[in-house]
Structure formats: structure tokens, C-alpha cells
């Protein structure tokens, strides 16, 4: 496992906003084909870390190594050009446009930097969307207006559109499964696993441990801007995650059964 192919490394990332240290020397490693969960309490630095990857923020210091090379990501276009797609849940969709129009929304930008997605006419876009949805086994009509979809269907569209450019890394932000029925949340999790099978490496940010544990290989925990641990999913019990999230340590748990401070 140790020599698994690494697709992305963030090393010593620090980011301040005035007096606030949002990220303090944070490391992150993403292996190829992996689903990495990112957990942490409100304000722990999850969004800030991801924004350093998606080109919304530039770190004060630290390195980002993508496919073995140091990169700087100065804006969202550069992130996309590298093959890093971020989905900001259904809020990113335009309700009055069709599913197809939403899938292609904003692609013109990427087009100028790297011709990943050829310019297409309406018919071709519809065909491509139909293909994409069918590959990912999403039973949504590409002609439907997004406002006519259920919340769960919107999430599926918002997430699946990141696959259009065949990205290396997909970041799924903040609660893709919140406010969904159990069944709809399961479909989103299935989609995430399917995207991994199609070749993407995925970072999933969520406050829902059960959802994260259902799909993640490892779960990394941030606490007040610091990287306090990465757990393999087998050791990522609810208790371990909560301990790291709340106090930044495992407080004598973490599988050390011989710890004399824990009796009976
Ligand atoms: N643009 C900004 N300007 C000033 N402070 C910011 C900015 N963005 C984030 N912060 C601060 O940085 C810290 C980390 O915030 P961040 O949004 O990354 O946390 P988070 O882990 O995503 O939390 P949540 O779970 O609530 O989304 C917080 O103290 C926050 O107030
Ligand atoms: Mg956040």
C-alpha cells in the first residue's frame, strides 16, 4: 500500500486571513483512484484547504505537487486545466436551464485554456449529456429543466457534470448528501463510487461520518487549521473521528488496548 501511486500532495500549506490562521502547515496526500474523506468541525479549515486546490485561494506558503510536479494554481481555470474539478453542490446549478445546459454551463472558460471539451452544438451537447448520464447510470432526462428535478436528482447532476472533462481529481464539497432522503443519499454515494471506477481520484468533504465511511478509503481530520490525523476507514470509528475533530487527539483510544489509563 505504501508505494501506491500518488496523484496529489499538498505539503506544509499555510493560509492566513489577517490574524486568523485558517491553515497551519497542513499536509494532504491523495492516491490514484482513492476516495479521501475530509472531516473537521466548523471553521477547521476544510473549505480553505480545498479552495487552495480549486484556485479560489493562494496559500501563503507550502507546496502543491500534482502528478509529481510542483504546480501553482492561481485561479479556477488553472485548476480545471490541470484536471481538478470541484463541485459546490446543487447551488451551482441554474434552475431555469435544462440538465444539458447545466452540464455544459461554464465550460467555455476551460475551452480557452485547454480544449478538453470541444465546442458543440445543441444536438451534440444533448447527445454527450445523455451519454454521460447513462455511463453513470443516472436516470434523468437531459431535456428537463433543473427546477423540475428532485433535490436528489439535482445533486446527481451537479456531481456528474464534473466528469465531462474526464478529470484526474474531483472534489466534492460540503454536504453533497445533506438534506437528502436515505435513498437519494445512497444514490449520490453510489455515483461517487462509480466515478472512482471511471478513473477519478476523489476528495469528499462532509459532516456526515456514516456517508464518508461508506465510500472513503481514508479519512483525514482537520482541527483548528491543523492536520491532526489520517485514519484508514477500518479505524475511523465515530469515536476516533469525533475525538480528533473535537480535541485534535485520540485521547488514549486509537486501538491501544493496553493503555493503563483506560480501565474496564
Ligand atoms: N475569506 C475569509 N476571510 C476571513 N476568514 C476566513 C475566510 N475564509 C475562511 N476564514 C476563516 O478561516 C477558518 C477556516 O474556515 P473554513 O471555511 O475553511 O472552515 P471549514 O472547515 O470549511 O468549516 P465549515 O465546516 O463550517 O464549512 C475559519 O476561522 C474562518 O472563519
Ligand atoms: Mg466549509
Automatic annotation (TrEMBL):
Gene3D superfamilies xrefs: P-loop containing nucleotide triphosphate hydrolases (3.40.50.300)
Pfam (any one): ABC_tran
Statement: the UniProt record of this protein carries the keyword Nucleotide-binding: yes
InterPro entries hit by this protein: AAA+_ATPase (IPR003593), ABC_carbohydrate_import_ATPase (IPR050107), ABC_transporter-like_ATP-bd (IPR003439), ABC_transporter-like_CS (IPR017871), P-loop_NTPase (IPR027417)
GO molecular function: ATP binding
This protein's UniProt keywords: ATP-binding, Nucleotide-binding
UniProt domain ABC transporter: residue ranges: 8-249
Statement: the UniProt record of this protein carries the keyword 4Fe-4S: no
Domain of life: Archaea
PANTHER family assigned: CARBOHYDRATE TRANSPORT ATP-BINDING PROTEIN MG119-RELATED, SUGAR ABC TRANSPORTER ATP-BINDING PROTEIN
Stated name of the protein: ATP-binding cassette domain-containing protein
Organism (species): Natronoglomus mannanivorans
Amino acid at each position: 500500500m505504501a508505494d501506491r501511486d500518488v496523484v496529489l500532495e499538498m505539503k506544509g500549506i499555510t493560509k492566513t486571513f489577517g490574524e486568523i490562521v485558517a491553515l497551519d502547515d497542513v499536509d494532504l496526500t491523495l492516491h490514484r483512484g482513492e476516495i479521501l474523506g475530509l472531516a473537521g468541525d466548523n471553521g477547521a479549515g476544510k473549505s480553505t484547504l480545498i479552495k487552495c486546490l480549486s484556485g479560489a485561494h493562494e496559500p501563503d506558503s507550502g507546496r502543491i505537487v500534482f502528478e509529481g510536479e510542483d504546480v501553482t494554481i492561481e485561479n479556477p481555470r488553472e485548476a480545471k486545466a490541470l484536471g481538478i474539478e470541484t463541485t459546490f453542490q446543487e447551488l451551482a446549478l441554474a434552475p431555469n436551464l435544462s440538465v444539458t445546459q447545466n452540464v455544459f454551463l461554464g465550460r467555455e472558460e476551460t475551452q480557452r485554456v485547454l480544449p478538453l471539451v470541444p465546442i458543440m452544438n445543441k444536438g451534440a451537447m444533448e447527445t454527450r449529456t445523455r451519454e454521460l448520464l447513462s455511463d453513470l447510470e443516472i436516470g434523468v432526462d437531459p431535456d428537463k429543466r433543473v427546477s423540475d428535478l428532485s433535490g436528489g436528482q439535482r445533486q446527481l447532476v451537479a456531481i456528474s457534470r464534473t466528469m465531462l472533462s474526464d478529470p484526474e481529481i474531483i472534489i466534492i464539497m460540503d454536504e453533497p448528501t445533506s438534506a437528502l432522503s436515505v435513498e437519494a443519499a445512497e444514490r449520490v454515494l453510489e455515483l461517487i463510487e462509480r466515478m472512482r471506477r471511471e478513473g477519478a481520484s476523489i476528495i469528499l468533504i462532509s459532516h456526515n461520518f456514516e456517508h464518508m465511511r461508506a465510500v472513503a478509503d481514508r479519512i483525514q481530520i482537520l482541527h483548528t487549521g491543523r492536520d491532526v490525523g489520517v485514519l484508514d476507514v477500518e479505524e475511523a470509528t465515530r469515536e476516533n473521528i469525533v475525538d480528533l475533530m473535537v480535541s485534535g487527539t485520540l485521547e488514549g483510544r486509537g486501538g491501544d488496548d493496553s493503555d493503563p489509563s483506560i480501565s474496564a
